[in-house]
Amino acid sequence: MATRVRSRRLSEPTISRLPVYQRIAEGFVRRGETRIDSRQIGELAGVTPTTVRRDLSGLGSFGTRGSGYEVAVLIERIADALGHDQSYDVIVVGVGNLGRALVNSSNFLIRGARLSALYDVDPAVVGQSVAGHVVRPLDALVGPATLGVICTPAGSAQDVADRLVGAGVRAILNFAPQVVSVPLGVAVHYVDLSIELQILMYHVLHGTGPLAGGVLHSVGLSGGSPRRGS
Amino acid sequence: MATRVRSRRLSEPTISRLPVYQRIAEGFVRRGETRIDSRQIGELAGVTPTTVRRDLSGLGSFGTRGSGYEVAVLIERIADALGHDQSYDVIVVGVGNLGRALVNSSNFLIRGARLSALYDVDPAVVGQSVAGHVVRPLDALVGPATLGVICTPAGSAQDVADRLVGAGVRAILNFAPQVVSVPLGVAVHYVDLSIELQILMYHVLHGTGPLAGGVLHSVGLSGGSPRRGS
DNA sequence: GGATGTGAAGTAGTTCACAGCC
DNA sequence: GGCTGTGAACTACTTCACATCC
């Protein structure tokens, strides 16, 4: 059952905004609201109402002219588009400060994500129990898992990425400040803390306030050389 | 001395890639290389050579036709554009798992960023010494500082943002899963871990491999209603 | 020859403006 | 009246293709 198409392909910015809309809708549910309109969503998400409507129109036409969207349906549709009915296994490699913080964070492993195993190279860390999992040695890394998280230093990132791909991982979230190369078909996203700070400082220095704040969205290019297919 | 214009306004995607190029160039320096070309940078950064050249052309014309860029000059120019000669104070609010991990991370506070103070509401945490700073109570939050980092739960994020702005902070990095509203002129970037996972899962489910990976960059809209621009 | 720097073309995303429906 | 959904216009970013210079 490959699900009925699960809506057509959405753009990257749209995909990154849908979870925000969904969170807003959940807030409405919690407050007992039953309907929401694009202006309200936009206000809370920091985007224009038009953008909200354009984003949602990609999920099919389920709003009501004159009165907005039913929150329950909205949540449902976004969950469906994002595949929240699926659950999936997450491997975390690198159990230092950051790795530990992530697996213990209440914001991290939600909506179907399930921690499958933790790995590290450091013999002092291997064998420890973290978030209910015994940390295993990196050499023991095996699948299956859907998603891998890299929390190692930059120098190990490529090696870890290769191992993750070898274990069948289809997507990687990389916290190491290092671009990694992966085969086509594997998605990689980067969270680079020092770069975020540098970007913000650029705005401070150049007074780029006008278009301040923002809902996160990420973009990017690949591993292998982008053209000439790899 | 407002520095001579510091090059013209760069696009958001360009700004987010420059630190990556710089890191690559520093790797070359470390290996004793003295020159680098756009193809090499692009390969390692995961973007096309054209994009690299377009990005760098915004910093002025300092390459040499036929042989690329001198690494030392490249690093210099990027540092100049990004304001790396400035140092600035960072306040971190919320000293839970994540806040702790950040301030202890070697990737976080670099290139001019200087930890100025840590705050928390939890009396059990206040008074503790973390990363060489005694955690202070949130009510004692005062400036001056340039940049604030929010590592609190979502519910406190807006309150903390208001306090940070009150303390004179010009830019905020928000790890709480909550869009915050700030005055025009204050930049906010979001790092939302669960959203990153959800985006990756979307790609896994839809087999969006072709244009895989990606250097993170975030954007967004602000606080006030986005239209009616000022 | 070889790589930069950049007009011109192409592609993606956002915003406008309004027809359509409740 | 009010708000959705969407063609059309616009803006932003990327990629092509090549003149230019070492």
Task: Spell out the helices and strands of chain A N to C.
Answer: HEHHEHEHEEEEEHEEH
Q: Can you count the helices of chain A?
A: 7
Can you identify the CATH class of the largest domain in chain A?
Alpha Beta
Q: Beta-strand percentage of chain A?
A: 15-25%
Instruction: Indicate how many domains the architecture of chain A comprises.
Output: 2
Question: How is the largest sheet of chain A built, in terms of strand order?
Answer: 7-4-3-8-9-10
State the CATH topology of the largest domain in chain A. Rossmann fold
Low-confidence stretches of chain A: 1-5, 209-230
Please give the most extensive interface between any two protein chains, plus how many residues each contributes.
A-B, 94 and 98 residues
In short:
Chain A has 230 residues and is α/β, with parallel strands linked by helices.
Would you give an account of this structure?
The structure is a homodimer of 230-residue chains. The first copy, chain A, has 230 residues and is α/β, with parallel strands linked by helices. Chain A has two domains: 12-81, Winged helix-like DNA-binding domain superfamily/Winged helix DNA-binding domain (Arc Repressor Mutant, subunit A); 88-190, 3-Layer(aba) Sandwich (Rossmann fold), CATH 3.40.50.720. Chain A contains seven helices and ten strands. Chain A has helices at 12-30, 38-45, 49-57, 71-82, 97-104, 154-166, 193-206; strands at 35-36, 69-70, 88-93, 113-120, 129-130, 133-134, 136-137, 147-150, 171-174, 187-190. In chain A, the strands form three sheets. Chain A has a six-stranded parallel β-sheet, covered by helices on one side. In chain A, α1 (12-30) packs across α2 (38-45), α1 packs antiparallel against α4 (71-82) and α2 (38-45) packs across α3. Chain A is globular and about 60 Å long. Chain A starts with 11 loop residues before the first helix and ends in a 24-residue tail after the last helix. Chain A binds a DNA duplex (22 and 22 nucleotides) through residues 11-14, 37-39, 47-51, 53-54, 56-57, 61, 63-69, 227.
